[in-house]
Amino acid sequence: MTDTIRWGMVGGGLNGFIGEVHRLAARLDGGFALVAGCFSSDAARNRESAGQVGVAPDRVYDDFAQMARSEAERPDGIRAVSIVTPNHLHFPAARAFLEAGIDVICDKPLTTTLEEALELESLAREQGRILAVTYNYTGNAMIRLARSLVAEGALGDLRLVQVEYLQDWLARNIEQEGQKQASWRTDPQQAGRAGCLGDIGVHAYNLAHFVTGLPARRVSADLATFVPGRRVDDNVQVTLDFGNGTRGALWASQVAVGSENALRLRLVGSRASIAWEQEHPNQLRYAEYGEAPRTLSRNGAGFPPSLQRFCRVPAGHPEGYLEAFANLYGEIRRGLLTGQGDFTDVADAVDDMAFIEACLASNDNDNRWQPLMR
């Protein structure tokens, strides 16, 4: 595949976080060319941001609706757009580009409500467009290996799923101190009702779903807000029932003092178990019943040839967050060019929104079991 995707971006202006990560990931393998954007609602910042990333002045737009219309009319218009705004803008921006016939790459969560997600799913299907959601940890080579081991039955019957995502950066009320990322992520008008749940809890759920292939059937959730004055949850504990005998537990917290970005997944089957940690992403612990545990390494001995495309350098040369993100962009590009990409699509993203809403409903109803409504 030598085709370069003409690509645009909504959001991701100066001093942001995730926009630059998307740009780095998209250009790591040279498959995307950033040619258009609406980087900020602030006109001066929008233009300055465009200049810094090399977008021509006539391809910088004041709003995403204008961008979608204009790019759809150009013979050299963008093929795809990445939406890297706060959550409340995901739905209107994605809808505008899908209606214009442009493929969409959206940061997670897809929307702030299940109803909006279902509308986008229907629109993407009607338009014949890709709607990908960037759950970047699924691009990690060892996560791909974990999924392969589960699928081929190496664990036996899957019994237990344990996933946690712990941070401590919101252990104080830094949103009141003007911290930009904290300000919008703890604002229900911008982030939606789900705070920690919608920010990192859904990452944890999506990772478990991606590796096991099992969506939850019902949940019992407890959402807590430990920091005084905060308007959204900052700690989430969920019991998961996958409907086939498999049980699970999810813990997500942004007030877990001593944790930086501790995403961990453990799966226990009748024959073997596996464990993976995002802060040590190049190893996977594999233990068969009655045998000493083994550490499997990215691109190491016995690494499957079918997963080689997720590795860039030999074993022992660490790959991490950006490489996993780039793998995801690589799979989206494969999808755009061949229809064969392996990434979280809109159907899976709808399931993620069903998970969020079921957790909110359970918490509102004394933590009672709540089915996922799809």
Automatic annotation (TrEMBL):
Q: Which GO terms describe its molecular function?
A: nucleotide binding
InterPro entries for this protein? Gfo/Idh/MocA-like_OxRdtase_N, Gfo/Idh/MocA_oxidoreduct, GFO_IDH_MocA-like_dom, NAD(P)-bd_dom_sf
- List residues of the Gfo/Idh/MocA-like oxidoreductase N-terminal domain: 5-135
Q: Which SUPFAM superfamilies match?
A: Glyceraldehyde-3-phosphate dehydrogenase-like, C-terminal domain, NAD(P)-binding Rossmann-fold domains
Q: Which PANTHER family match?
A: CONSERVED EXPRESSED OXIDOREDUCTASE (EUROFUNG) (PTHR43708), OXIDOREDUCTASE (PTHR43708:SF3)
Q: Which Pfam families match?
A: GFO_IDH_MocA, GFO_IDH_MocA_C3
What protein am I looking at? Oxidoreductase
Residues in a coiled coil are none
Which residue range or ranges hold the GFO/IDH/MocA-like oxidoreductase domain?
144-274
